[in-house]
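Write out the 3D structure for:
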Amino acid sequence: MSGRHRGKAKRGGGHYRNVKSNHNCARSFAQQENELASGSGSDSESSEEGAGKDELGQPPEFVVAMWDLNHCDPKKCSGRKLARLGLISNLRLGQKFPGIVLSPVGQLCVSPLDRDVVSSSGVAVIDCSWAKLDETPFGRMRSPHPRLLPFLVAANPINYGKPCKLSCVEAIAATLFICGFPEEARWFLGKFSWGHAFLELNDKLLNAYAACKSSEEIVKVQNAYLEQEQKERDKPRDLRDFYPTSSSSEDES
């Protein structure tokens, strides 16, 4: 999140190309947020299968789909789990999708302006490996509405606490939340025992993005947020906050 123009995302680095501005700041923020839902990183497939018994949110009235490139371990892939549950449609390579597609070829960030497109035509994701982006045929997964995601922190067990490395279900939920479908976002995340942590980690950002009026405004909110986090990181710290003083020792005795 380096010396590139703000609002431009760099090629590679994830299924869902995020609009990034300051990588060091993002890493720092992710480390701080690790304290939330600390047990999430150890979730297994068996615990996931037990999630969602108490229904949260509401199911969507629009299509949610994915292109599955078979790069990922089916036992750990959130997209595969949604497919097994019959909650997501599979698309073929070369098949065009009319709705929002989260893809590295996008130039605009997803925003509330996309609500009508999602409502009428749905949203799709590309399920591929972070390590195989260079061999992923993004050109064969076409849409009139390719989009990027702004800065968010992953809560999935594989990339917990890492900026931008979202799983399929996290990318879907983020898109729905930003576009004004928070209950549908909760419904998808509710199928995973760790799903609630994604909303907790990103509560401030998701609500700020959802309040924006355009892609450009979302990028400004993101960049301002990351700059503030960087300033907090760069502040000198008083070592007296970390070590007991003589007076505090006397008080304790």
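Residues 112 and 211 are 8 Å apart (CA to CA).
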